[in-house]
UniProtKB/TrEMBL annotation:
It comes from the Bacteria. GO terms for molecular function: adenylate cyclase activity; ATP binding; DNA binding. The lineage of its organism: Bacteria, Bacillati, Actinomycetota, Actinomycetes, Micromonosporales. This is ATP/maltotriose-dependent transcriptional regulator MalT. Keywords: ATP-binding, Nucleotide-binding. Transmembrane segments: none annotated. Coiled coil: none annotated.
């Protein structure tokens, strides 16, 4: 792995460049911890400065040169130093020599690790900063003593001084992609960011080690980290240098914090000596974080814990874990996570495990969607004699960890312990869930329905019926799913969890049918009762998000999608490797990015979803369909076709309810390949199927796809009572009166404007789409308006073209049929001349450059003006930006 690309730090880089080039400043120094990226930032700035007309010199101070006079600036001082000069004479000579070599340009001196400069070099730097037309840039390591002349640079107000913060999560993600050549999935990027604490050097070492040990796996062009941490020797040595040799008391403090962080300050004080705690904090080994009235202690860097825990002898580690558990139990498990932490400490200490403690802790970990930890605790509870309850919990967790066969085996091992209807109902639902969604066995639905008949308790039966209902919805037995769900709600004995699952089933069906208000209301009701069902059925959250996400996507509510992918569940699912939740929310995020016109983000996010769901059949087909949509939007036909084939391969019939999204994607891919008749035929078939299923919410989107392809006039569906079939525009107008939300009415307006060939109405529709942040629809409607207005020789064609250019600037690469087939056709020569004219070249200069006559240039320009609907050269560039890039056109 070579030198990484420079990413992020745009504000800091701009500040450095500004400090180097502005006549009002003399320089800037950045302080920061080792490895935070100070040196890389400085070198990047110095690389750019010669192009700005600066004379640039650079030096890197180090310990070896710290004791040699002018050793730190040996790379800067001219080689032909006159003999016999005093130190003061050398300084004056050096400044004069640098100005002579600069030949009137601004002098820029960049010094890395300026805190290691020898006294003479430090004094020379100060003198250079005071001279005219000179700038000094530098880096310092935080916490290190700084030579007085360097410190005087900012105390005398000659230069600015700032602290360089660690990389943020987004910058870390970008840096990982630059290092590996492909994006990293969000959970892996988040874990690596937290472990490196935004330190670029530590991040690089972690990635190198993970790559070498094959802990980084690449799937569908996305890297995923397994999460195991094997520190390379180079990083080990770096952390050793920071921690240093620990006294016995300080080591006790650091080890306790490493085993138990975050640990309460009061608890740590009871377990260790206060003076040792103070010394550990003073040396930068620990930090105290205060929130409200609570003070917690953490290690100063996450990797310190990895080193300390690895080097701690097994016997001492067990003793420390047992001591932590004793301390918290004596103080009382008052905090939310105390029960979970005590269970883990007991497990790690090897002390006699309490099955009830492990079982409760495993349930708590699962309710926080930490799948690996929950599985570990549940298995320990089963091994410790937890019996049926431990087996049920473990099997459920294994299902969501993509280990369905193992889950069935665990459940069957405790079948003889089913001694009540309550246990049988829970066993049936967990086994049915694993069999149906984990193993794709459609026969599960009939089996679970037959078994439910033998249950006598109404509450137990309601639980099984609620699961049967959602299974029937997913296999498109919608009427039966609705009947069963309502029967659960009609039973007062049904638990909150069973009722919540039934309401989610109904909410999903309501969204598909276009009853978005009722769907949203049902979802809000289930979410409001989360505290009552989360412990019993945490995975109900997934059914809730599927119903809510379906409604938001059908409503085109991008702000609503943004809200749920930014909520706590998304963070927990990512961090806890809850793949179904994390993957589905990534699909939603990709849908929102696609509709906004951010095709690159849509492709990256959908690829991440494909990687996360590679072994999870529930949503894998949907993830690949969304990837196909994003690739088609970017004009990457081969990738779109491949993704659609993968969608068909990975989609399972147990999730047949997702077919509208897949068929829309298929039509999009066909259109991208140029098979517009095939795309139209596919959409007409989809509309007919949706009408038959009563999925009016989905039907609106499929009909609008026909409008986007310019087919608002074709007939669809079955004949009406008049014996004639409706046009797309007529059907959308009809649906706009029954399907909730503003989108159906807007799409119906779009259809009527397209049907009536009205450029002005298309512009009004585009404005409305733009207000909803639906930039793709807005750009397509505007593109069609431009074509209509030009055909009518309207004076508004120029205005429309400028608006199209503005919309496209808000988008990434777009290659949809409405944008590519409805644009004015410019010849390659016309494009050449138009681009040169837009850059301000006179006709004579263009003629000379292209070896043609000036008259030819003027004639071509006039044809360009007519085609683009512009009045002159000043309006060319926005108009050119509105035309999709052609093959080989590098001046997009």
């Amino acid at each position: 792995m070579g030198r990484w690309s420079f990413v992020g730090r745009t504000d800091e880089l701009s500040r450095l460049v500004s400090a180097a080039t502005s006549p009002d400043t003399r320089g800037l120094f950045f302080s920061g911890t080792a490895g935070v990226g100070k040196s890389r930032l400085l070198w990047q700035c110095l690389e750019d400065l010669p192009e700005l007309g600066c004379a640039v010199w650079s030096a890197s101070a180090n310990i070896a040169s710290a004791g040699i006079p002018f050793g730190g600036l040996a790379q800067v001082l001219p080689a032909d130093q006159p003999p016999g000069l005093s130190p003061a004479g050398i300084m004056r000579w050096a400044v004069d020599a640098l100005h002579q070599q600069a030949a009137g340009r601004r002098i820029v001196i960049g010094i890395d690790d300026a805190h290691l400069l020898d006294p003479s070099s430090a004094a020379l730097v100060y003198l250079i900063a005071r001279s005219d037309n000179a700038t000094v840039l530098g880096t310092l390591r935080s916490g290190e003593p700084v030579p007085l002349p360097i410190r005087a640079l900012w105390t005398d107000d000659l230069v600015d001084h700032a602290e360089l913060a660690p990389l943020g999560p987004a910058e870390t993600t970008d840096l990982l992609a630059a290092m590996l050549g492909d994006p990293v999935d969000a959970p892996s990027a988040d874990r690596l960011h937290r472990l490196s604490a935004g330190n670029a050097l530590m991040l690089r070492e972690l990635v190198i080690a993970a790559h070498a040990s094959e802990e980084l796996n690449r799937t569908y062009g996305v890297w995923r980290w397994t999460g195991r941490t094997q520190l390379p020797p180079s990083l080990d040595d770096l952390i050793d240098a920071r921690i240093g040799q620990l006294e016995q008391g300080v080591r006790a403090v650091v080890e306790l914090v490493a085993m138990g962080e975050p640990i309460g300050l009061a608890l740590l004080s009871r377990a260790t000596d206060d003076s040792d705690v103070e010394l550990a904090e003073e040396r930068g080994l620990i930090r105290v974080v205060t929130h409200d009235r609570r003070s917690d202690v953490r290690l100063a860097h996450p990797l310190y814990g990895e080193v300390v825990r690895r080097r701690c002898p097994v016997t001492r580690a067990r003793r420390l874990n047992a001591r932590l558990a004793d301390l918290v139990e004596r103080a009382g498990t008052r905090r939310r996570d105390d029960l979970l932490r005590v269970a883990v400490w007991r497990l790690d200490s090897g002390t006699e495990p309490d099955p009830a403690l492990l079982l409760n802790a495993g349930g708590q970990a699962f309710s926080q969607f930490d799948v690996p930890l929950a599985a570990r605790l549940a298995r320990a509870a089963l091994d410790a004699g937890g019996g049926y309850q431990a087996a049920e919990l473990l099997a459920t967790i294994l299902m969501f960890g993509d280990r369905a066969e193992e889950a069935i085996s665990v459940l069957d091992s405790v079948a003889d312990q089913i001694t009540s209807d309550e246990r049988r109902s829970r066993w049936l639902t967990v086994r049915g869930m694993v069999s149906y969604w984990g193993l794709n066995r459609e026969s599960t639905v009939a089996e679970i329905a037959a078994d439910a008949e033998r249950l006598t308790d109404p509450a137990d039966r309601a639980r099984v019926v609620a699961f049967e209902a959602i299974m029937r919805l997913h296999r498109l037995e919608c009427d039966e799913a609705l009947r069963l769900s309502r029967s659960v709600l009609d039973r007062p004995a049904a638990t909150v969890a069973a009722r919540g699952l039934a309401r989610c089933t109904i909410a999903h069906l309501q969204a598909a049918r276009g009853e978005l208000v009722l769907s949203a209301r049902a979802v809000e009701g289930v979410a409001a009762e989360a505290a009552q069902w989360q412990a019993e059925m945490p995975y109900l959250q997934l059914a809730l998000e599927l119903a809510r996400g379906t409604g938001l996507a059908l409503a085109g509510d991008l702000a609503g999608i943004d809200a749920i992918v930014a909520a706590e569940f998304a963070d927990l699912a990512d961090a806890g490797d809850f793949r179904l939740g994390s993957g589905y929310l990534s699909i939603l995020r990709a849908q929102a990015a696609r509709l906004r016109g951010q095709s690159g983000e849509a492709l990256r996010t959908s690829l991440g979803a494909c990687a996360v769901l590679a072994t999870s059949p529930v949503f894998a087909g949907l993830a690949h369909a969304e990837r196909a949509q994003a690739a088609a939007m970017r004009g990457d036909v081969d990738s779109a076709v491949e993704a659609m084939l993968e969608s068909d391969r990975s989609h399972t019939t147990v999730m047949a309810v997702l077919y509208p999204w897949l068929e829309q994607a298929r039509a999009t891919v066909l259109a991208a390949t140029g098979d517009l008749p095939g795309a139209v035929a596919g959409l007409r078939g989809l509309v007919g199927r949706l009408q038959s299923d009563g999925f009016a919410g989905h039907e609106v989107l499929a009909l609008h796809d026909l409008v986007r392809l310019g087919r608002a006039d074709i007939e669809i569906g079955e004949p009406t009572v008049t014996g004639r079939r409706q046009s797309v525009a007529q059907r959308l107008t009809e649906l706009s009166e029954t399907v909730d939300g503003p989108l159906p009415a807007l799409m119906a307006r779009h259809a009527r404007a397209e049907y009536g060939h009205s450029g002005d109405q298309l512009l009004a529709v585009a404005d409305a789409f733009s207000e909803l942040d639906l930039n793709v629809f807005a750009a397509e409607a505007t593109s069609r308006a431009v074509a209509r207005l030009r055909a009518a020789r309207s004076t508004r064609s120029h205005e429309a073209n400028l608006r199209l250019a503005g919309l496209l600037r808000r988008c990434d690469v777009l290659r949809t049929p409405a944008l590519s087939t409805r644009q004015p056709a410019l010849t390659e020569r016309e494009r050449q001349i138009a681009r040169l004219a837009a850059r301000g070249l006179a006709s004579r200069n263009i003629a000379e450059q292209l070896y043609i006559s000036t008259r030819t240039v003027e004639n071509h320009l006039q044809r360009v003006y007519n085609k683009l609907g512009v009045a002159g050269r000043g309006e060319l560039w926005p108009a050119l930006r509105s035309i999709p890039e052609q093959e080989g056109d590098a001046d997009r």
